[in-house]
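Hi support team,

I submitted a single chain yesterday and got back a structure, but I'm not sure I'm reading the token output correctly. Could someone confirm the output below corresponds to the sequence I sent? I've pasted both exactly as they appear in my results page.

Thanks,
R.
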Amino acid sequence: MDVEKWKNGIEEERKQKNDFFKWSIQSPIPWEEKEHFKGLDYYPPDIKYRFELELFEHSQKSILEIEDTKGNIRKFIRWGEFRFGIDGVDCK
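Hi R., thanks for writing in. Yes, this is the structure output for that exact sequence:
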């Protein structure tokens, strides 16, 4: 993988998102605050946090209820999990 190309792609996506927030009529930022909007804060892209993982299906599926940003409860099926390690810690 070309790491610089990957980083540049992330930076371009971030720029597009910031432009959307600042200029789009669909932006969640109120118009009166847009002139002061300098962009979202991000951590620098780090290749150690890029993963290509296998999805392991759960034999028993369950329902997960999550409140969305408008306060509505949405139901999701807990279908499976990703398993990986980072900095010596097993995660899933």
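A quick pointer for reading it: The mean pLDDT is 96. Let us know if anything else looks off.

Best,
Support desk
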